[in-house]
Amino acid sequence: MILTTLISRSLLCTSLLVITNIWSSFAHAAEELGYEIIAERTHKPVLFTQGLLVDGDHFYETSGLYNQSLLVSYPIAEPAGTWAKISAPFTKKQSIPNQYFAEGLALLDNKLYVLTWMEKTLLVYDKATFNYEKSLNYSGEGWGLTTDGESLIRSDGSATIYFHQPKDFSVIKTLTVKDGDKEITQLNELEYANGVLWANIWHDDHILKIDPQTGKVLAQLNLSALKSKVKLDNSEQVLNGIAWDPNHKAFWVTGKQWPKMFLVKISN
Ligand SMILES: [Ca+2]
């Protein structure tokens, strides 16, 4: 009886410890932002979303995985009818060579810059034609990419953000992202909008609002409610993809192989 109680208590304590550790790894101290979903649309589930951005009336997106990575564009306005939405072709599509796992995507001066995960290679394409132009090399991993209009800004899965020269992709400076005293790792897709850096966290439902001068986490957006609006089949279908839509003054967000995209307006 006593032994059973001791074992039960031990199991309970272990369980509570595990729960506490899981909670502390996902809980962030920064203020939580309110938001409203003002629109939604389909997203092709074939897309293992890595980078997402809006330019004019189109989305530009990179899709990852070896032997199937893609760079695509498609209209923000969907064709009418459910069948047409799902089967509608991309406006432009470029297959990324099989040896590369495509990651983040940025658009600067009519060039599309595509990061690769472990291949230390930045691929550069012409925006108008999607023709391959050149490759640039870098050290470390490639996860997310965006631009402030001058630098290309990269994440690598750590808490470090790298600012690169577009012409040769050399590193200009780095930042460490911290929420209070805690470094936030697993930073993934990025979006620079209105002087602020926004970041997905891999396998986490929060998007962080980051000061691009200091790396300080200014606030967070908890999008866990979006998962109930999409049918997901596996644990790698995580929230990823942030694109500022200047016409709606809101962010399009989606996830890897998600069937939908959501236009999220931040309300405070
Ligand atoms: Ca983005």
Any overview of this molecule?
The protein has 268 residues and is mainly beta. The protein has two domains: 30 residues; 235 residues, Neuraminidase (6 Propeller), CATH 2.120.10. The protein is built from two helices and 22 strands. A four-stranded antiparallel sheet has the order 1-22-21-20, with no helix packed on it. It has a four-stranded antiparallel sheet with strand order 2-3-4-5, with no helix packed on it. Strands 6-7-8-9 form a four-stranded antiparallel sheet, with no helix packed on it. A hairpin with a 5-residue loop joins β8 and β9. It is globular and about 50 Å long. The relative contact order is 0.17. It binds calcium ion (CA). The site of calcium ion (CA) has 9 residues, from β2, β16 and β20.
Distance between the termini: 55 Å
Shape: globular
**Runs with pLDDT <50, length 5+?**
1-25
- What is the ordering of alpha helices and beta strands? HEEEEHEEEEEEEEEEEEEEEEEE
CATH architecture of the largest domain: 6 Propeller
According to CATH, what is the class of the largest domain?
Answer: Mainly Beta
Mean of the pLDDT scores?
A: 91
Question: What's the arrangement of secondary structure elements?
Answer:
Elements: H1 2-26, E1 35-42, E2 49-55, E3 58-63, E4 70-75, H2 82-87, E5 92-95, E6 102-108, E7 111-116, E8 121-126, E9 132-137, E10 145-147, E11 152-155, E12 160-164, E13 171-176, E14 178-179, E15 182-183, E16 187-193, E17 196-201, E18 206-210, E19 217-222, E20 239-245, E21 250-255, E22 260-266
Bound molecules: calcium ion (CA).
Calcium ion (CA) binds next to strand 2, strand 16 and strand 20.
